[in-house]
């Protein structure tokens, strides 16, 4: 697989990476559905309920308790996969990244063209006056984080039941359609509409995920291993 991926990358001029939480497990951030994912742990409510818009509105304090403990990892550093993708972009091989992740690690690794379908924990805003706040305003708070005006500070992440940003969606679909190789990595491809984006690809498809996905059968290449290992073997 690795050598084949190296050959596919060499033949391609507009590689796009589409990723998910599995890209950041090697940075110590748990995914949802992987072997140590949050879905294997017990909480008062399932994670997709806690991370929904209606739960946020009804049980705001419980949402922030979970969010601070489980979704924020302020000390996390980019993994090999993040660094290699940034290097591929600098080399003019990769035209961009479409990510479902909210951790900001692609940008921390130096990637420039990153489309965050589900927003970012790095951006937060007051629901009342729209003032912007950094991650620390939520990470260092207790209870419900509040703006000076009294409004709730909401993370700029797309919760379940909320829609994706139209501008980001349009640019992501265009990037994927213009690609001649789409590398899908570290995602279970179960969260929609994001998972459906890969059907708009313009060229070949490589899938690297520790566990099988619904896209494996359509892929030109498929590996059930670590995304960091596969990218390192194909690029370094
Ligand atoms: P998911 O948890 O549903 O799937 C992750 C997949 O990655 C699993 O199939 C797992 O087997 C695989 N995986 C784990 N580590 C891997 C590795 N090192 N190499 C290759 N594969 C690996 O995650 P998803 O598909 O991204 O969807 C979950 C949603 O949760 C997303 O919308 C995302 O916003 C959110 N989320 C984000 C983060 C983050 O920002 N780091 C973390 C958890 C969840």
Question: Descriptors for this entry?
Answer:
18% strand; three-stranded antiparallel β-sheet; 31% helix; 236 residues; six-stranded parallel β-sheet; binds nicotinamide-adenine-dinucleotide
Q: How are the secondary structure elements laid out?
A:
Layout: H1 2-11, E1 15-19, H2 47-50, H3 53-58, H4 60-71, H5 80-90, E2 94-99, H6 105-109, E3 114-116, E4 119-126, E5 132-133, H7 135-139, E6 153-157, H8 166-177, E7 181-185, E8 204-208, E9 221-223, H9 227-235
Parallel strand pairs: 1-2, 1-7, 2-3, 7-8, 8-9
Antiparallel strand pairs: 4-5, 4-6
Individual helix count: 9
Name the ligand types. Answer: nicotinamide-adenine-dinucleotide
- What is the end-to-end distance? 15 Å
SSE string, helices as H and strands as E: HEHHHHEHEEEHEHEEEH
Question: How confident overall, as mean pLDDT?
Answer: 96
Walkthrough of the structure:
This protein has 236 residues and is of the alpha/beta class. The chain has helices at 2-11, 47-50, 53-58, 60-71, 80-90, 105-109, 135-139, 166-177, 227-235; strands at residues 15-19, 94-99, 114-116, 119-126, 132-133, 153-157, 181-185, 204-208, 221-223. The strands form two sheets. It has a six-stranded parallel β-sheet with strand order 3-2-1-7-8-9, sandwiched between helices. It has a three-stranded antiparallel β-sheet with strand order 5-4-6. Strand 2, helix 6 (105-109) and strand 3 form a beta-alpha-beta unit. Helix 1 crosses helix 9 and helix 5 packs parallel to helix 9. The longest helix is centred in the N-terminal third of the chain and has 12 residues, at 60-71. It is globular. The two termini are 15 Å apart. The structure holds nicotinamide-adenine-dinucleotide. Nicotinamide-adenine-dinucleotide binds at residues 20-22, 24-26, 29, 31-34, 37, 100-103, 118, 186-188, 190-191, 208-211, 226-228.
